[in-house]
Design a protein that fits this description.
Helix content: 40-55%
Number of strands: 13
Signal peptide: 1-18
Largest sheet: 7 strands, parallel
Oligomer: single chain
Keywords: Glycosyltransferase, Membrane, Signal, Transferase, Transmembrane, Transmembrane helix
Number of domains: 3
Strand order of the largest sheet: 3-2-1-4-5-6-7
Bound molecules: 2-acetamido-2-deoxy-beta-D-glucopyranose
Protein name: UDP-glucuronosyltransferase 2B10-like
Structural class: alpha/beta
InterPro entries: UDP-glycosyltransferase, UDP_glucos_trans
CATH class of the largest domain: Alpha Beta
CATH architecture of the largest domain: 3-Layer(aba) Sandwich
Radius of gyration: 28 Å
Shape: globular
Transmembrane segments: 483-503
Length: 520
């Protein structure tokens, strides 16, 4: 008895020590790669062996780290004019169309799986992994990696609990209270908004079912079919694979209100990408912020939008507007050639964002409202002025405003005129700062920090060979059964049959009576 305990103990210990982990972040989106980097860091620190497929290679040299460089995927966004400030100012988007997002994901998928470095990895018959972690945006074909390596897989989702990912491990949450991640609607929804959400879901599903998924299925079969044949195994059906993840990690946390309910294999690890303690600031920034006795306003529009695509006049007007404040303004802007920068404004090409936000003198964060920036604002307790530009940024800022720690300002040629009163409100009204402090306390008040939680769950999945015990029974119940449409059909058939019979019976009686009358 004792021996068996000891042996299983040794087995369990050795089982998770030095796991071989494949982390795949194929999209050319910098902020997503920051999440990938976070996962790499935590798993390496836990002693695991990490292979990282990435568009933005890291400068890490370690025995337990290897990179598969797919930086050429940036070609996908380099030529995309819809990502320039010029285009956005002229088109006033409030919501990216679903076909655009689905197509983008499939293009990235094709580029990644056809990349020679990835091919080399996949074709090596000696390669094996214990677990796959892959970024999840709109395309599930990467689940084929788990089939190839015959190991469990975990999705890492950059947002919160949305129907599009919940449907992969449970059921799609109800559109009546869980709007799409690209939707500006926030619950509680009005009648029209509910109808809108239902429609947008039907439309998304229509596109996915009839256009995107057939293409994904054929990519899956073309790429993984031959690879598995070489390893002497048959290729399972695509649908059995895409719904077979062990866990979903979500980059969200408990302080956020109005979240959809989630199954037991959906884990919130929001904030895991933030290094703790934060790295010290560079000396010049440290001195600058330390000596700003009226406080600091930090302004950054993230990494996707290039500042140099901003119209010159807009830049000059912003500078002039910032110059009217006595606060120090730190503006992350990739252009050193600006003339006439006011004394209180400091342009930096690169900003150690977490370290800046961590400083107590920083009073507010003017941001595009990307998921990472929104999270960091809560982590460090700084109120936001949001200027959303695309994708989930509208939702993030709506949510932050609803949670009481953000103001939204639209991106337009009039940005400086609209931004100024918002800054004044933030400076004079401490409600926003108080509210974000409260949320920050909620956010930090958890059982385990998100990084160790990530490591624990990955190890747990491997230890339990896919964590089948955490799977939702709903996953295998089709929609018509969940809605009891079959029962409804039976009830309707019986009811109509009875009504039909009764009518026949009545008619017959009447007929007979009439016959009698006639014969009389
Ligand atoms: C689904 O995942 C489990 C656990 O990782 C695995 O044992 C099983 O083979 C997978 N099924 C398919 C069809 O890939």
């Amino acid at each position: 008895m004792k021996w068996s305990v000891l042996i299983s103990l040794i087995y369990f210990l050795s089982d998770v020590e030095g796991l071989k982990v494949l982390i795949c972040f194929p999209l050319p989106v910098k902020s997503l790669s920051i999440l990938g980097q976070g996962a790499v860091r935590h798993l390496m620190e836990a002693g695991h062996d990490v292979t990282y497929i990435t568009v933005y290679p890291l400068k890490i040299k370690a025995k337990n780290f290897r990179q598969i460089d797919i930086s050429t995927n940036t070609a996908l966004v380099a030529s995309d004019e819809s990502l320039t400030m010029e285009y956005i100012l002229n088109h006033k988007l409030e919501r990216n169309p679903p076909n655009q997002v689905q197509e983008f994901a499939v293009e990235a998928l094709k580029m990644t799986l056809n990349h020679e470095n990835v091919k080399k990895l996949l074709e090596d018959p000696n390669e094996h992994f214990d677990v796959i972690i892959t970024d999840l945006i709109e395309s599930e074909v990467y689940a084929g990696l788990a089939v190839l390596y015959n190991c469990p897989m975990v999705w890492l989702y950059s947002m919160g609990a949305h129907w599009q990912v919940l449907r992969l491990i449970d059921v799609a949450s109800n559109p009546a209270y869980d709007p799409d991640y690209l939707s500006p609607n926030m619950p509680p929804l009005t009648f029209t908004q509910r109808a809108e959400e239902l429609w947008s879901r039907i439309y998304w599903q229509y596109l996915k079912t009839f256009y995107t998924q057939p293409e994904e299925r054929s990519i899956y079969e073309e790429v993984f079919g031959p690879l598995l044949a070489k390893r002497g195994r048959p290729l399972p059906d695509y649908e059995d694979v895409m719904y077979n993840a062990s866990l979903i990690f979500a980059n969200e946390h408990d302080a956020t209100r109005n979240r959809a309910s989630t199954p037991q294999n959906f884990k919130y690890i929001g904030g895991f990408h933030i290094e703790e303690p934060v790295k010290p600031l560079p000396k010049d920034l440290q001195d600058l912020i330390d000596n700003s006795k009226h406080g600091v306003i930090y302004f950054s529009m993230g990494s996707v939008l290039k500042s140099n695509s901003m119209p010159r006049k807009l830049v000059m007007d912003l500078l002039q507007m910032f110059g009217e404040f006595k606060q120090t303004v730190i503006w992350k802007f990739e252009d050193n050639s600006l003339q006439g920068v006011p004394k209180n404004v400091h342009i930096v090409n690169w900003a150690p964002q977490p370290s800046i936000l961590a400083h107590p003198n920083v009073k507010m964060f003017i941001s595009h409202g990307g998921q990472l920036s929104s999270l960091e604002a809560i982590h460090f307790g700084k109120p936001i002025i949001g200027i959303p530009v695309f994708f989930d940024q509208f939702t993030n800022i709506h949510k932050a405003a609803q949670n009481g720690y953000a103001l939204r300002v639209p991106l337009s040629q009039n940005l400086p005129r609209d931004l100024k009163p918002a800054i004044n409100t933030m400076l004079s009204d401490d409600r926003y700062a108080k509210q974000v402090k409260e949320l920050s306390d909620l956010y930090h008040d958890r059982l385990t920090k998100p990084g160790p939680a990530l490591v624990y769950w990955v190890e747990h999945v491997v230890r339990t060979r896919g964590a089948l015990h955490l799977r939702s029974p709903a996953l295998h119940v089709p929609l018509y059964q969940r809605l009891y449409l079959d029962l409804l059909a039976i009830i309707l058939i019986i009811t109509f049959s009875i009504i039909f019979l009764l009518i026949r019976l009545c008619n017959n009686k009447n007929g007979k009576r009439n016959d009698k009358k006639k014969s009389n």
